[in-house]
Amino acid sequence: MNRKIIAATNNKGKLIELVKILSERGFEVLSLKQAAIEIDIEETGTTFEENALLKAREIYKIAKIPVIADDSGLEVDYLNGAPGVYSARYAEPGKRRAKVLEKLQNVPYEKRTAKFVCCICYIDENADEQLFYGACEGKISYENKGENGFGYDPIFEVREGVTMAMLTDDEKNAISHRGRALEKFVNYLQK
To answer: In angstroms, rounded to a whole number, what is the distance separating the alpha carbons of residues 107 and 142?
Structure first.
C-alpha cells in the first residue's frame, strides 16, 4: 500500500512523527510545503475534534487528495484540564513548559497527574471523514528532563523519573497519544 496523504500541519515536531509512523506503514506523507500549500489555519475550535476537522477540511478543499490532521494537547488534572485545547497557545513560544511548572510549583507528585490527548481527522479521496483518538497518561515532572521530542515532552513523565523527551522516537511512538491514534487510523485503513 503506497498511498499519498497530506499532513495538515506546520508544526515540525508533529510532521516528523507523522512521517516516521506513516511512512513505515506504506504511506507517502507530503508536508504542506511539499504540496505547495502555504496556509496557516487558525485553530478556532473549542475541542481537539473541532480543530482537527477544521484543519483537515481546509487542506482537503485546496488539495482534493487524502489529508490527515491532528490536534493534540496536554491536560493537567490539577489545572482542571488546562492547557488542553489551548496547549500551543498557553504562553508565548519557549515559555509554555515553564508556565505549567510554575502553576504546579508546590503540588505534590501524586497530584501532578496529566495526559496527552490526540484527535486525528482523516479525509479520504471521496471526502469521507473519520476521527481517531489516542491518549497517554502520565505525571508532570518538577523540571525539564531529556533532549528528544518537542513541546511538553520534557516535563511529561511516562513513569517516575522518565519523561517523553528521554525516550527514543520508537519508544515514544509506541506509547504516545499520537502514536495510539495513528495506530487506530492504520488499522481502520487495513480493514
So the answer is: 9
Q: What is the mean pLDDT of the chain?
A: 94
- Asked if residues 88 and 116 have their Cβ atoms less than 8 Å apart, the reply is no
Residue linked to cell 471523514: 129
pTM of the entire predicted model: 0.92
User: Exactly one of 40, 70, 71, 128 is catalytic; which is it?
Assistant: 71
| Catalytic residue check, 77 | no
Angle between helices 177-190 and 12-23 (to 10 degrees): 40
Q: What is the rounded CA–CA span in Å between residue 89 and residue 87?
A: 5
Mean pLDDT of 131-155: 96
CA dihedral 73, 85, 91, 146 (to 10 degrees): 0
